[in-house]
Design goal:
Elements: H1 5-9, H2 12-24, H3 27-42, H4 47-59, H5 66-89, H6 94-100, H7 105-113, E1 121-125, H8 131-140, E2 146-149, H9 155-165, E3 170-173, H10 177-188, E4 192-196, E5 208-210, E6 213-215, H11 220-228, E7 232-239, E8 245-249, H12 261-282, H13 295-300
Parallel strand pairs: 1-4, 1-7, 2-3, 2-4
Antiparallel strand pairs: 5-6, 7-8
Helix pairs in contact: 2-5, 2-9, 3-5, 4-5, 10-11
Length: 303
């Protein structure tokens, strides 16, 4: 029987072990262990390394050599290891998290926006850098919000959601039309909704153009923002050389009605993805997406 490496690394046991390492080991030792483990994974042929390899090939312009792609996979997984250590080492230390993610005026404005005294907004992001660290730190700074997550979280995903909820963030698994109605009403009342939008949807028939290629990415955030009459704001965490994390943030994108609802979804969803493309191109080694965003590339090989 062939083991599913993706399922193993996303299991509750694997996430729990990573959490224990981050909390227990001295910071330097935790960094070294995470780096060693990331490089060990990067040398193997498994579902994660194949997905990262194909995603990096497209994001880097489809002209990387095999050696360059090997290096790209190592960089992505090593960066992920550092992000995990920074998060789990400071999970119960709000001061440590705040030091890693200092506030800027734009972030202060975002937190103020979440206090239900202004129109709501739909905040979307790619899985870049320390996504959960930034999310938790925003919550510790007093940000209110509803976080949309994978519809049926199990194992490690459920544990991650439990950690997010411990900060006071409202975690909402997406489970169809009822969830959409709840989210729309929440934003109409002034609430902010947050979710990542770069994970492909299995068996999705309609695709969106992303980095010039069709991909089965979600567009529900556009539908909900239009119904609630709120803007979409794109954010993207980024690690910077001084050892801290930064949040790149777009101007509000207002969703305009269109005679053809399906075309409206596509046009606005692809406009949002264009912003995300720019953020990923700035630091492709920090794009921590472990699922094949372009299944045709993943299945046929990226070289």
């Amino acid at each position: 029987m062939k083991l599913n490496f993706q399922s193993i690394t996303n299991s509750r046991a694997a996430v729990g072990l990573t959490l224990w390492i981050g909390k227990t080991l001295p910071l330097g030792a935790a960094y070294r262990l995470a780096d060693w483990f990331a490089k060990k994974i990067a040398r193997r042929d498994n579902s994660i390394t194949r997905a990262v390899r194909s995603n990096q090939w497209v994001a880097r312009g489809e002209n990387s050599t095999p050696v360059e792609l090997d290096q790209a996979v190592r960089e992505v997984l090593c960066h992920a290891g550092r992000c995990f250590v920074d998060l789990y080492h400071n999970l119960t230390n709000p001061a440590g998290l705040k030091a890693l993610f200092p506030l800027t005026e734009s972030i202060r404005a975002l937190i103020a926006h979440s206090q239900f005294d202004t129109p709501g907004a739909f905040i979307v992001a790619p899985h870049t850098s320390a996504f959960d660290l930034v999310l938790l730190t925003l919550a510790y700074h007093g940000m209110n919000g509803k976080v949309l997550t994978y519809g049926n979280p199990t194992g490690g995903y459920k544990l991650q959601n439990d950690l997010r909820a411990a900060t006071g963030l409202e975690i909402t698994p997406v489970r169809g039309h009822e969830t959409e109605i709840e989210v729309i009403e929440y934003m109409r009342s002034g609430g902010i909704v947050l979710t990542a939008i770069d994970r492909p949807i299995r068996n999705k028939t309609h695709t969106l153009t992303f980095f010039g290629r069709p991909s089965p990415l979600p567009a529900g955030h556009i539908r909900m923002a239009l119904a609630a009459e709120v803007p979409v704001i794109v954010v993207a965490p980024q690690f910077i050389p001084d050892g801290t994390y930064h949040l790149r943030m777009s101007e509000p994108i207002y969703i305009q009605p269109h005679a053809d609802p399906a075309e409206a979804l596509r046009l606005h969803a692809e406009a949002v993805l264009k912003v995300i493309e720019g953020y990923i191109r700035q630091t492709p080694d920090q794009w921590l997406m472990y699922y094949p965003v372009w299944p045709d590339v993943f299945l046929n090989g990226a070289e």
